[in-house]
Amino acid sequence: MKLRNRHKSFDGWVEFYEHDSRATQSPMRFSLYRPPGSEKHPVLYWLSGLTCTEENFTQKSGIQRYLAKYKIACVAMDTTPRNLNLPNETATWELGAGAGYYVNATQEPWAKHYRMYDYVAHELPELISSEFNIDGSRQGIFGHSMGGHGALMIGLRNPENYRSISAFAPICAPSQSPRSQRAFQAYLGADTRTWQEYDTCALLAQVQTRLPILIDQGEDDEFKDAFLQPGLLKAAAFKNDYPIEFRFHPGYDHSYYFVASFIENHIAFHARFLS
Q: How many CB atoms lie within 10 A of CB 275?
């Protein structure tokens, strides 16, 4: 594992690493914020949206101030492997590099490397807990847009590994949105039954453990109705008696200005369960 860069921030450290991943069989990058103090810290895993790298959230959210305040570490990983020279790897922002949807691809040319579910749910937490002063028994997961989908889906599928879940403007039902359906078909094939294990609305009907979930959504988000579909998730939560805290915010769009506006609320939410 290679330390690429580090910056002191609110008496803690923002660090950027690269390592060889067994899940993706490629180099992967992540950022880590280590708050001040020598004790073992709980950790949040942040999943970013389409086109993002490990740097977008780390630089734009303003989260370090609040991680230092609540003494919580935070990991933000790249959204896919990079520079693999796969066909159509960079042809569109909705598929390929930066658009992994946090699934384990089963279709060529993606199947060998695009295994972001295994990377996020298993490999990276194991690496973080073994290499850093992190308490792996106190984990939360959160994300934005495609990453909000990933956080909800991975948290619901692995409730034993997390204490809390939150999301900003998540893609709530990727198997029902034409834009994400194209990616699901490319990664998972035409059998839509296999898509359901990566769809939050479908998973709500199956889960037994009910983790606390917070979701923030901007009312003026240009992707809200056609792509994100929060109404479908609200209906699924109600139907399956799953208590999710939804908050809708007039005037806010899909940008990191929205994320930065409410990021402290999310850190405080997770801190209640990670302490």
A: 11
Q: Residue type at 80? A: T
Give CA torsion, residues 25, 166, 48, 260, to 10 deg: -150
Q: Is residue 7 classed as helix, strand or coil in its secondary structure?
A: strand
Out of 9, 31, 48, 145, pick the active-site residue: 145
Statement: 2-274 belongs to CATH 3.60.15.10: no
For 196, list phi and psi in degrees, rounded to 5: -65, -30
pLDDT in tens, 120-175: 999 999 999 999 999 999 999 999 999 999 999 999 999 999 999 999 999 999 99
pLDDT surpassing 90 at residue 275: no
166 tagged catalytic: no
User: Which of 149, 254, 266, 270 is flagged as catalytic?
Assistant: 254
Report which of 133, 205, 214 is spatially closest to residue 169, judged by C-alpha positions. 214
Boundaries of every domain in the chain: 2-274
Percent of all residues in the chain with a pLDDT value above 90, rounded to a whole number = 99
Q: Which of 113, 199, 221, 266 is catalytic?
A: 221
